[in-house]
Amino acid sequence: MEDFNSNQAQVPPQIIEKPTSITVFGVLNIVFGCYYLVRGSPGLYKIVAGACKNPEKITGSEILVLLLLAVGIGLSIWLLVLGIGLLTMKRWARRGSCMYARIQIVLMVLGISYIAMSIKWSSVPEEMWGRYIFTILTMLANLTYPILLLIFMQSAKVKQAFSAIGG
Description:
By secondary structure, the protein is mainly α. 75% of the residues lie in helices and 0% in strands. The protein has 6 helices and no strands. The radius of gyration is 23 Å and the shape is globular.
């Protein structure tokens, strides 16, 4: 008895070339993840060490900074893992990169809003205006990467490449 499938022509799986943007953003995720990890770790250590020496002198703002640094380090590790996942074409890495980008955009907008709203602009000395405006412009510039990451991870080419592997 012949196997029914043996008479049918075997259709080779569709091979889709991996878009360059996946490789570029995979590498950038790793680079930025490592950079943010190295940049945030000393600050976290400094605050924790200070809190251990004088736990009664820790302020509310130090607790907030400690929390933000911990979240930042967690996001850095996540970005690093997502970069490795993109380079190896893991389905979860594209979805995770989109989620990371959305979270970063929300956090940046909240940070910019907080800075802009918390400053009493009328009482800021003239020599400090440049510093505050530079900080806000830097945060706006930092929005560039998550916005580009979100745009490219949702492009038709990238979606097609991941759907070819079942994602």
